[in-house]
């Protein structure tokens, strides 16, 4: 059986947009998507240039996302899904436009910068019944899936302690002073990204990953935010304590000033039977530690592991897969769900655990709770579920 | 500036062909190739099925490689290059057919199973002046390039000792008894693959990688071959000693019976200033050890590293890239060379260090020397350069 | 030049006293002490038995520490120093008795269980001018000394973030239910050890180690204490946030319920130039991470390292030293200071950085501040310096 | 029950003798020996100085080992054992003198420099029935004992491949040109140590360790010796292939020119069920690798491990023990055997697997076989068992 490729459009992702490259490589790897339309830039000219480079028909490059949503939904063989890789503050209107046009949405995280918008977008996404996938790609790594499987299978027993870090070193020094560093200019400008961009950018990944693997909601947070780099106008380090729904406790360390770290994303979960650790830098390994002194590292790609892990491993047996493959995994799962939707008009995805608008909403609530706690000198703040 | 994608055909790579998938994913990642023709199987029916899955026009699926070479070379906008992923014993005639038709060749390793064919193919490739790339993908890992750069820049000083391992565990037990395991059936049958398929398959990778990184030729070898798994009819373990052109010594351990290993590819080089190690399982790291007690691991993706490393890193800074990316790196370099050829009709590639027919020829000579040494009780055997 | 061995007595350390063994092995390794007197147990009979095993003259086994302090101080060639390895709540009276008798004190940590006693003991120790060494052995590891040296030499630049863990797994399950486990019975009984024995036992090590290496005082703490193991009557997990004197922030995770960990002691310090990490489990390594992508692990025992490191390395060059050697290092430094005292009647020790009564006092204040913060729902509590 | 300490004398071990320090610290750690006599140097004056430092009665410092053997054996409460830490070429006469005087011998390795002497010493040691222990300390590491236990318990299945390295970097450059480096002067002078001192010094450790852990004898060797450092007059690198009694194959890499290594001692054994690896640099870990993708590192000091491991662990649970403890372990086992001898006049030691004169003899035969093979261009040479 063959299926036609999924036709997608993209909003954002023009010249210099780093994360859009990862999205496109993730789509290409398993060859299940074709990029056929887009608004790649606010400038139509730049957008057309990008279209040439990306092999997109110039007739399907639009002046605005509204126009694209309208015309593509009206068109025969128009796009089935849109990928939104614009700055966070535009996610809400763009996503709404496409959902209202009956087009599935694949949206970069965080879902929105504003809590009210997050609540509304979640409601809209739920009510339309379309696929809404938030691209928390880290939970699509094969061994993160394996970890989630093991936790649910009881390998750790009851969860007690969760230690999560997303402590990057990317902004260890005044990168915002480099005029060529557009990422820095945008992310470190409080006017554009708020003072808690650290939590929006990295903290939401840590939050989603913890929830995904542990199966526990984060119910309360106590936050200590700090600015390490002199002259910086946003927070660049966060020491967070969390309480989980089952009573477990933990810490999330989120930073962009962890000098000497690269991306610094890892988690450790401790249950009453064993503990488990995973590090994004070495994603093909997953380690379980047992109280009898065994530290058992499981290597990706063996038959002994879960179906989910197997499905998301392309080569296996010592041929490591990395970050781009995590995007490809996510896009592969999204493709499965969209293909089923064609037949069933259902967006449910129990065996394809995509991050959804609910994850997006909880992530934005988490950002706001961190902000509130910090402003109250670290008081514990609840997060509505 | 934009360039049209490189039009390629493929010989081999039908259902179940593992390595062809890696080739195709490698081509897709950076979107510089389009697969437009093929003989994917000896069975035309299976070949047509594969074409549908791969999105190849059925009119460009051929009954034989000879036909494909003829018709594509005659066609306007025919293929510029062919990817050969057939069993080793057919590499020679297939490669010759396309070279003679003026089509660049991208050929899986080992170049041939027969030394005489290797000699002739090398001569033909040289004389035609086309691009002939052998897909030793490991030397295209970014940090292997970094290693080669460091060695040439003198970071190790004069090379003294080389320790290379390609000690896989894939055939640790009687996998050939599993009728569903077609890889095993083929590779472990002396009638199809010879008794030294271990050296052809894995040993040639180790040999090429050593030569690539060290910049030294392997001039002599002393071999001890063994069969570990009872009942097996080919050698599954090889302990090799080597002498290098500059007088350095070393060992190559090549195995498919290294129980508990996955792919087991790594190298360590010791000079008179420092030593260096790299492991394919963790390819984004490269470690230099200094006599003053510093063990310096360099992480892929930093500006402080070589241009070659930078060029072959897509995301960087803690977003690991793996095996598929190594294929993509190789295909990216091949694309650069083919694009230049369009303008210059030159296949030279000094700054794009592709494995060529010379590497293929030396690899086959190495296989033969190992065989000869083993049959002479480990006598040292010279390898012509 | 030779010096006579230092004559020591011991209070505590009879049958089953684990840590006393480490003290005695630490004293023996470099052969600079002789154990000549003791009150090894509350039972004189058990004390005498221990004396026989330890080769101590039965005439110098005493019924009480008071008697021992009196008689040894009066005796010609009496003990010069006493080692106190009794339960924490008796450290105060025992230490006072010997200090008042003019005998140097080597006291197990924490200094006392009671803050008032700690304040008084510190005053007495200061005013008597004798050697008072608290056996925080971890800061005597050679590579911890190296770390402290590097921090002071500016290798990290200005400290920003400190992440310290003493997350043991020793009490991961209800070890207190095992009647043979006397350690557990004692440490996990709130009546004997208080509900915050976790902080006294392990937290004070983490606190001292952080202060020692960073050179920064801990000025404020916010604490979240928890009991993971059902039925347990003391806290077994602590998530602590700290503020340091220079404005740096950090987290201390202290646990005895970290399933799958052994001793779990490690620190990471991040400055504005580089970061540094050390793990007690692999104490002969120290890693510096630089923002240019180098992770530099320094191996104990090289000339390129600090004098302090060199002095505390016995064999070096790949012959690892461990926990017992850390005690030996501490006892070696104490011996140096006591030997100087013989000549100078000065207990100052700038180049032998022994933990003193001030470290003990700050440790007890830290325990109390943690307790107070937890009781106030994690409010930030200041620690007097 | 108490036993008196074992009275030992020492031959060698005066000022600057590195390994003698390790012997003495090994004896001290568990306090079961007292050093009461010695010939510490050829110079009586230096010997007396050493005695003062070591707390040895000057009346029991002798002019010659012959005198010491005679007088101590005649004396009431004379030494029960002698520790021989002289240069290799004097081991034979010294050991003979003490064995003939009825005194147990603890002899540094290699047993002798000369094969004929080794044969004779083995005969004498066997016929006298005294304890003769060769101080191959590495096989006394707790996790090496655990490894040997696991191999015998079938954890690996049938052994197939053995990869052993003792590749030190200590002589990576012309250390023999440094006049203050007495170790180098002695070990790198062919007149004093022969051209194969590398094999005597380090190779015999690798050989004994392989035999000890695997339970397999080395029956044949093929050797390639080399001199890396220009101007050096002895071999400093050896690439050895071996065949074991059960048909397994393997490689031993022995070097003193492995730049950037410290001591470089490690082994990996591959069976038909699993593989196992241990590294002296991190001796408290032992890793088993399984074909299902689990890499299981076992940490020293857990109840789940063998009795032998438990007996040789002092603290455990994350308090690492190292090189000095390996000597202490060996001395502890020797003490057990000597104490039994007091009662039984038997030196048998099945449950205390000490290296004996047979190990010493096989080691010297191994050295000679390596030399012979190298001189015959790597021809396979048999080793008599």
UniProtKB/TrEMBL annotation, chains A, B, C, D:
InterPro entries documented for this protein: Gfo/Idh/MocA-like_OxRdtase_N, Gfo/Idh/MocA_oxidoreduct, GFO_IDH_MocA-like_dom, NAD(P)-bd_dom_sf
Occurrences of domain Gfo/Idh/MocA-like oxidoreductase N-terminal (ranges): 6-135
Domain GFO/IDH/MocA-like oxidoreductase: 144-277
Domain of life: Bacteria
Stored PANTHER family: CONSERVED EXPRESSED OXIDOREDUCTASE (EUROFUNG), OXIDOREDUCTASE
Name this protein carries in UniProt: Gfo/Idh/MocA family oxidoreductase
Phylogenetic classification of the source organism: Bacteria, Pseudomonadati, Pseudomonadota, Gammaproteobacteria, Oceanospirillales
């Amino acid at each position: 059986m063959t299926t036609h490729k999924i036709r997608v459009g993209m909003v954002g992702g023009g010249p210099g947009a780093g994360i859009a490259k990862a999205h496109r490589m993730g789509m290409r790897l398993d060859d299940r998507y074709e990029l056929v339309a887009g608004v790649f830039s606010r400038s139509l000219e730049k957008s057309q240039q990008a279209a040439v480079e990306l092999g997109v028909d110039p007739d399907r490059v639009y002046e605005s996302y509204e126009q694209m949503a309208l015309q593509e939904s009206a068109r025969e063989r128009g796009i089935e899904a849109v990928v939104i890789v614009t700055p966070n503050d535009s996610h809400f209107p763009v996503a709404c436009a496409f959902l209202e046009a009956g087009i599935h949405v694949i949206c970069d995280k965080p879902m929105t910068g504003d809590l009210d918008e997050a609540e509304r977008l979640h409601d809209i996404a739920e009510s339309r019944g379309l696929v809404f996938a938030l691209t928390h790609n880290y939970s699509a790594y094969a061994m993160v899936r394996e970890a989630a499987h093991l936790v649910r299978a009881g390998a750790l027993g009851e969860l007690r302690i969760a230690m999560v870090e997303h402590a990057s070193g990317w902004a260890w020094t005044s990168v915002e002073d480099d005029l060529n560093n557009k990422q820095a200019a945008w992310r470190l400008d409080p006017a554009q990204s708020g003072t808690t961009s650290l939590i929006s950018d990295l903290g939401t990944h840590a939050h989603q990953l913890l929830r995904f693997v542990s199966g526990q909601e984060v119910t309360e947070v106590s936050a200590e935010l700090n600015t390490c780099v002199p002259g910086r106008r946003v927070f660049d380090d966060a020491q967070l304590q969390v309480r989980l729904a089952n009573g477990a406790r933990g810490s999330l360390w989120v930073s962009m000033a962890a000098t000497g770290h690269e991306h610094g994303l890892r988690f450790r979960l401790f249950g009453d039977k064993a503990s488990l650790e995973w590090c994004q830098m070495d994603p093909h390994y997953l380690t379980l530690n047992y109280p009898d002194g065994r530290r058992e590292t499981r290597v990706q790609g063996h038959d002994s592991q879960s179906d989910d892990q197997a499905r998301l491993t392309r080569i296996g047996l010592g041929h490591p897969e990395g970050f781009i493959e995590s995007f490809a995994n996510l896009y592969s799962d999204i493709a499965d769900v969209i293909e089923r939707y064609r037949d069933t008009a259902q967006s449910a995805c129990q065996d394809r655990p995509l991050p959804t608008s609910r994850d997006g909403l909880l992530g934005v609530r988490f950002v706001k709770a961190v902000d509130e706690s910090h402003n109250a000198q670290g008081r514990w703040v609840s997060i509505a579920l």
